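Reviewer 2 asked us to include a model.

Predict the structure of this chain.
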Amino acid sequence: MPFDREDLSEELDEALEVQAGSEGTDGQAGADGATPADGEGSSASQAKTEDEGLLGVVRDAAPAKKPDAAAASPAEGAETGDKPGEGAPKQPDNENYSDVPFNKHPRFRQLLSERNANKGDAEKYRQVDTFIRDNGMSAQEAADLLTVGAMAKTNPAKAWELARPWVENLLKAAGEVLSPDLQQAVQEGRMTQEAAYEVSRSRASVASMEASRGFEERRRQEQTQTEHARSITTAAEDWETDRRARDPNYDTKLELIHREIAWRHHNGDVPKTPAEVKAQLDDAYKAVNAALKPPATPPAAAPGRQAPPRTATKPVTGGSVAGGNAKPAPRSMLEVVQQAAG
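Predicted model (structure tokens):
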């Protein structure tokens, strides 16, 4: 509601007139019996009453002042419990990942996407490598074939130059090139050319079957050897994992165990099966523990029982002392053997 100065002036005038009338009546009624002292006290009381009445009128007429919103609001962080900078966005934390959950961090998601991309590439490489090994090809043969295929797209002459020796060998292996004996038989008229090619293709088919059987046998042997080596490695890893879990001091003994195993392998004691691997590791482990075990101390005498008296050692009397013929004590196994041999 807006503040109106004219209404306030009118209200003040009316209040002053009412106040003046009441004061005149009271002053006339008490003037007859008042003394000079009473008149002075009455004047002071009337002035005070007039001031209070005027102040009350002004308070009633003046509009109530609204509290300042800025002043009424609590101080920042005083009552709400908010800490300075709590509402500010967090900066990316690429070291501790404390700004967001770990599985949603941009760096983690980037590494995950790179892992997935590399996983696809690794799978493709594994397929190519498996194909090459399963078909008995070497890395150089696979590279040569790829090079010929690439050159055939841009430089056919160069591609034929590279592929010609391989094609010639392939024709011979397929029986499409007659051997010298078949060529001579054709030239002498003992065999027609068609019959000679039939014999050549038949020979090539038999040779290819034998080569295929030999290749399958070699591949089977290689797979058997690979699986055997893997079983040996797995047995050793399982034994080490189990021993490390049961022996808290295993890492301190590891180097000694390796030396013990290497020494046994050097002497021809090489295990052939996973069971033999575990048995050899157990023996080496026991040998290392025995070497690290402190020497046993003699048992103490029981309370109230005295140790048996030691017998005095009597010196040997008589005989002769070998002066310069005494041999020094051996210091190694080699010296022991040499002294025993005389």
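The CA atoms of residues 175 and 201 lie 4 Å apart. Residues 28-41, 69-85 have pLDDT under 50 and may be disordered. We have added this to the supplementary material.
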